[in-house]
Structure formats: C-alpha cells, structure tokens
Structure prediction request, 612 residues.
Amino acid sequence: MSAYAIGVDLGGTNLRAAAIDPNGHLLARLSVEAQYAAGPERVADEIAQMIETIRQRLVDSSLQGVGIGVPGYIDIDAGVVMEAANLPDFEGFPIRERIQQRLDTPILLENDANVAALGEKWMGAGKDVKDLILLTLGTGIGGGIVIDGKVLHGFRGMAGEFGHMTVFPDGNPCGCGNYGCLEKHASASAIAAMGRMMHFGREIRSAADVYALAVQGNPRALRVFESMGRALGIALASLINIFNFPLYLLSGGPLPAWDLFAPSMFEEVRRRSFTFVPTGTRIEKAALGADAGLYGAAYLPLCHDC
Amino acid sequence: MSAYAIGVDLGGTNLRAAAIDPNGHLLARLSVEAQYAAGPERVADEIAQMIETIRQRLVDSSLQGVGIGVPGYIDIDAGVVMEAANLPDFEGFPIRERIQQRLDTPILLENDANVAALGEKWMGAGKDVKDLILLTLGTGIGGGIVIDGKVLHGFRGMAGEFGHMTVFPDGNPCGCGNYGCLEKHASASAIAAMGRMMHFGREIRSAADVYALAVQGNPRALRVFESMGRALGIALASLINIFNFPLYLLSGGPLPAWDLFAPSMFEEVRRRSFTFVPTGTRIEKAALGADAGLYGAAYLPLCHDC
Prediction:
C-alpha cells in the first residue's frame, strides 16, 4: 500500500491542503475559503473535513500524518499556537489536539515560513543542499532557517525574524520599536510606501502598482526597486557572513521584480560579504511559490525529526 | 582506567595545551613559546612533544584524543587549514596528519573561535543551554555558533564571521571591502582607533589606554565605549532576531570595560529586538577567558559528533 502525507496551509484567505507522497508527487489538492471569523473550532472542523475528503479520494493509500503551517509562533511540543498577530483567536487554542480528536493520524504544527523553507529544501530550489535560508517578502519579511535538513526554531520558536534585522540604524521606524528594520525597506509594503513617497501623480495601492510603473521605465519607480535591492543586499551579506550557507532563497509577491532589484542587491552583497564570491554562495528565487508551504507541511510527518 | 583528552590552542604567542577529563576537570597544563617563524613542521613537532609530555605525566589515565584550535578556516574532514591570515605557512599544511604520524591517538582540528564557543558551552557560561553564540572581541571580532551542543560550520567552514556584519552601512571602511563592519566599530582595535580620533593629548597604543582614561572619568573616553556598545547592540539585536537563542556571550580583551559599554549595548538591543525582553534572552560575559579554547578543543574528542 502506497503512502502519503497531507500538508495544510492556513493562508490569509484560503485553507489549502495537498496530499503528497514520499517522493514529492502531489496526488491531490483542495482549497476552501477560510472561515476565520467563525472562530478556531470551526476552522479546526474545516481542516478535519478537508483531510477526510482527501482520505476518501485516496483509499488505496495510507495517510502517514498531517502537517499544518500556521502564521504564528508555535510551541511545537505542545502543538499550540503561542502568538499569531493575524489570527489572534488561535493563540493558546489547542488546534493540534482538536484536529487529532476527529482523525486517527498524527498532526504536526509548524510556522508557515519554516514549512515554506522546508518545502523548498525538499522539492524546490534547495533540493541539492542541506542548509538554506528562505526570506519571504510580503507585508512583512519572514523566513526560515534549514540546517542539515531540519528547521532551526530557537528556544521559543521565534528564529528567522529576518524582517527585523537592522539594515539602517536610523532608517524607517518599525512597529516593533526599532528603526531601519529590513521589512521597512524591502517588503512588498515598503515598496508600496516608497512608491507613495515618489508622488507619481496616481494612486499607489500596492507594490504591483510601483512595479507596473518601473517596467514602463519610470526612473523614480526604478529607484524604489534599487533601494529595496540595497536593503536586501545589506541583510543578505550579513546572513552570508554569519551562516556560510550555500543557498539563500527569496520568495513572495515582489519576486517578479527580480531583474529590477537584483543588480543593486548583488552589488551590496559582493561588497559586504567577503565570503560570497570565493565560496560560490548562491542567492536565488524560490521555486515552489505558494505551494512551498504545502510541500513543507506534508514533509513534516514524512521526514521525522526535521 | 580513567580517561582524558588534550586541548591545544595555537595562540598568537604561545602554544598551550591542557589535559581535561570527561567531567571537565583540568588535570594538567603546559605552555611554550610558539616557533611559528620556524615553520609548520617545527610547530607540529612541538605540539606532538607537548602531548607526549602530558601523556607521560598521566600514565595512569588513557588519552582519548587531541583537539586543536587553530586561528583559521578548517577543512574539518581533511584536517587541513584552508586559510589562516595570521599563520599563512599553515595554509594547506596537513597538520592533523603530521601530528597523527607521531602519536597514536585521534587528532581533531577546529577553528579557534568555534572551540572557544564549545568550551563555554561545555564548562563555562553556557553550561545550562544547548544553543549559544559567542562573540570574541580582539583585533577583529570572531565567534562561534553552537546549536544543540554542536558547532555550526557552514558549507566552507566559514560560519560565525560576526565581525563582518554590517552595523552602519556607511560606517568605517574595512579591509574586507565593506563599510561599517561590526569589528570596525566594536573590536579592541576599533576602541583604540576611536581613542586616537579623540586627541587625548597622549599616545593611545591600545584599547587598554582608552579604558584607563575612561575609568578616570574622561568623558571622551567614555563616549568611545558608549559608541562601541551601540555597535555591539545593533549586531546583537539582529542576531537575537535571527537565532532566538537563549544566550549570547562576549569574550576578549575589552571585557573588563563591560560596565562602560553594556548600558548602551542593552539600550540598543531592547529597542532593536522585540523578542529580547519577552523571551528572557541573556547577553553575558563568557566565563573561561583564554581557557575556553582549551576546554572546547579537549571536548572535541570527548563529545564525538560536536
């Protein structure tokens, strides 16, 4: 009997689930609108239902377990979300236990950025390495650290807060209390904010609006991406000097603007990390997009001890 | 028959060796002036002789192996020093093989900052944790990363280059090609250089001269240490946000000035790391001083797989 695991992603809008076999083949996927407003019990019900639906489709295979990527800090051993800024109702809610009550299979929780890093390591751009760092560029900047194929959690599950590395000590103020956090200079939100400062004479609602102007050759829009690349490069150079990993990946909404921000990013990295060029360190685009989290979550019950 | 290991430190001036038992008791120590000018073969001979001398003193115990801390990048598997700015003759020299030929015991090489971090973890200020980072403040700033009791090497043995984290993107120029490297703002050399900029009307030969003025209450000397503390705090806050480790240790010559630089250091860390206070993260002085490297080197053959 063939085996598979299910990865679940608690995204901002949708709950997504995918059945993936030990070789990384995606066997089935499912997506439903998340009813977060109805509370965590309801969401736990929905997740359990999605898992049951997939199970019934794959009756000839055996479910090894379920991994769930959650946007928050996780107490891995307790299976509880400790802090989740975007899902405050889930804080302290025993989501693992609640789903486990409905299903006879192991349930594992993990932070969403960590499962994305793990997914890239397993089946994405990091297949050929054991150690990598993933930076996810979105509203903020998060990320995951994979060492020897395992996620680095830190002693309170809070490792990988790359968005709050200081890149400019007197830079933009951040809600965290700091100035010059990477995510205030290089996230999708920061791109939009810098765009608004440029007074383009049209409304800038998102990073995509700045991108649209930049690809038309607007020099001020291009400078926004150049500035974003510099901030990323400063942070990446420090990460390379600290970790000496073979691979650093970027993912998230601003990735299509790679050609616009990468030149200044690499310029900063070459200047600021003396190990970058001689060691052949790579900085690349992540490969799995929004599916990275599904792969990484499904990998949790398959890989054991990662 | 009781067991012990020998830790060897290739210091700038002296070769030092210590016999340490598995409980961390120091059984014997030896120090000789290093004959680096006579070449690596001669130094390998001297190390082998030191080990033999200790072995003869401890005939009733069994030597488990020898660990050697070397100031350079090590190819751990090959037992070869790949790069050593202060010991260029040792680059590519098969030091492990050469010593092993003379002695019938396993020889393990490791970077000197890494063995210091491991020593602090085993018998020093990090005894009660599994994960820690050590920053060594000297001519430059190096350090080691210990995760789950093991050294993080990176894919080319170059992890832990904290001295080249960018703290001020437009700060002091560094020989590495960067601007604003931590070690240009917070090492012992940086303290001396900042002291010279202050025109105290007396010769400043070292950080100790600036320290002497500061403890007398000289306000400009005090500002040097305040500035050094700020740079350290910026770097430590980023490290805390990245690793979420329970403990960060400082060691090296400037440590006696702790009371002068720590206030500004902690002020920066509290402001720049939102996880620092709520998680109870600690920043402390290392406990073993120059012996950390001896303990860590001796621990290599004792701990296996660290």
